[in-house]
């Protein structure tokens, strides 16, 4: 069983910074991808960033240059550093990972519980 524990959300003023963390707990072979998504009220959930096991990074245009995704393979954690936050970044942020149960198994996706980020003065 794999569980994701997210932390780090909160309230910040426009232009401020927040860092989100996602710890992956349980028994598995490896984490192929760590992804962050967000969902604003009345909107669909959107992909914002991904880091693959080899280090390849992907960002949505809306956060490129302001957000930085990273991972610590030794600690099975992923992080999202968010700088220059804007009111439109307000949303529930979700961590999502693709995990291999065994060395040659197909990746399976898991989701965190979500953490609220509010950008407001």
What labels describe this entry?
single chain, 121 residues, mainly beta, 7-stranded mixed β-sheet, 4-stranded antiparallel β-sheet, 0% helix, 57% strand, elongated
Strand fraction equals over 45%
Largest sheet entry = 7 strands, mixed
Provide the gyration radius in Å.
Answer: 14 Å
What proportion of the residues is helical, as a percent range?
under 10%
Instruction: Using the alpha-carbon principal axes, give the shape.
Output: elongated
User: Counting H and I runs of at least 4 residues, what is the number of helices?
Assistant: 0
Tell me the total number of β-strands. Answer: 11
Element-level helix/strand string: EEEEEEEEEEE
The overall pLDDT, averaged over residues, is 96
Unreliable stretches covering 5 or more consecutive residues: none
Which structural category do the helix and sheet elements fall into?
A: mainly beta
C-alpha termini separation: 41 Å
Please explain how this structure is put together.
This protein is mainly β. Helix content is 0%, strand content 57%. The chain has no helices and 11 strands. The chain has strands at residues 2-7, 10-12, 18-26, 30-39, 46-52, 57-59, 67-72, 77-82, 91-100, 108-111, 115-119. The strands form 2 sheets. Strands 2, 4, 5, 6, 9, 10 and 11 form a 7-stranded mixed sheet that branches. Strand 7 (67-72) and strand 8 form a beta hairpin. It is elongated. The model has no long low-confidence stretch (mean pLDDT 96).
Summarize the structure.
With 121 residues, the protein is an all-beta fold. The protein is built from no helices and eleven strands. The model has no long low-confidence stretch (mean pLDDT 96).
